[in-house]
Amino acid sequence: MSRTQAGFAPHSVVAVLRVEGLVALAAALVAYQALGGNWLVFAALLLLPDLAMLGALAGNRTGALLYNLAHTYAVPATLAALGQVAEAPQLWQLAAIWMAHIGMDRALGYGLKYPGSIITRIWD
Question: I need a labelling partner for 54 at 20 to 30 A (CA). Which of 17, 60, 115, 117 fits?
């Protein structure tokens, strides 16, 4: 399929999404360092949001929903807010790891899934 068809992002949009992801990744790394996080924990948990792909075992629509919930900045931002309210810096650290994962995915060209689809690449 060509990029001119509906559902495909133009190169300029893909470039913006990738840069945005890179900036989010860098900001999350700086935040994690400032929060005094353990880098072994960071490495161990970095790919944890991808376990949401297992939702595809319940079907593409459910898989897309679970994957998207695990790959939107709103969820880790909410976790960070809860960390602030609860005075729990560990929640801030988890949120930073989660945001780093999402930023990394975007920088590499992976986006949210369309309902009923298993494709996540933003350049398709």
Answer: 17
* Residue 23 confidence (pLDDT): 98
* pLDDT of the residue at 1: 44
For 87, the token pair is: 């005075």
Cα–Cα dist 34/89, whole Å: 11
8 inside domain: no
User: Residue 88 falls within a domain, yes or no?
Assistant: yes
CA distances (Å), 101 to each of 24, 58, 95, 123, in order?
Answer: 9, 24, 10, 19
Please give the residue range of the domain that contains residue 101: 37-118
Question: How many structural domains does the chain have?
Answer: 1
Kindly report, residue by residue over 29-77, the tens digit of the pLDDT.
999 999 999 999 999 999 999 999 888 888 888 888 999 999 999 999 9
User: Is there a contact between 70 and 49 (Cβ–Cβ < 8 Å)?
Assistant: yes
Q: Where are the alpha helices (DSSP H) in 47-88?
A: 60-70, 74-85
